[in-house]
Amino acid sequence: MNDLLKKAIAECIGTFVLVFAACGVAGWTGGELVATSLAFGLTIVAMAYSIGRISGCHINPAVSLGCLLAKRMTLKEFLVYVCAQIVGGFLGAILVFGIFKMAGVTPVGDACNYAVGYAANGLTAGGIFGALIAEIVLTLIFVYVILNVTDEKAGHGKIAGIVIGLTLTLVHLIGITLTGTSVNPARSIATAFSALIYNGDATALAQVWMFIVGPLVGGALAALLYKVLHAEKAE
To answer: Which of 59, 136, 165, 227 has the most crowded Cβ, counting Cβ within 10 A?
Structure first.
């Protein structure tokens, strides 16, 4: 099988599992802080040690953008990864919330008072500006850690997955009450469409651009910070 195709399938599966499991927990618990944060972190750990050796386990367009700008992947690989992630996330959300629907369970809104539920990201009192700043900073932290612990020269290969999972748990503990925590455009697109399909509510879909722009800007800034700091270290 073509190597890039293997990577695409791995990214699709990884994003599927992330959305199915972690967003499923968020929808079931109403975005309960600790349960949802752990669900995202533990899913990343599981996938990192499952598909990491195949694709690097990005399962997030913002992570892939950071890797592209850090020159760890080609533009072609980046585009294939992003497409696979979006497809995987969409399938994961449609399946998990479809099961909820068949069971007669309505995924409720979380602590940020999302009217739409379905683990969709949304605005809080901070408004558009607050949501964008939160997503940029949270994603910057997450992607910067990833770029560092996956650096071959750092020698963190065996524990990288655990560190990344704990970091995602951390940013969720901070961000759930702010935006529901996206830091992942594929995850936000998936749940926004789920809310529209199963609840008939387009609110999350109308706001999803913020959870695409914010994480991508954060991922780009993380790559820039990584390159600047490592360049200074080399000098």
So the answer is: 59
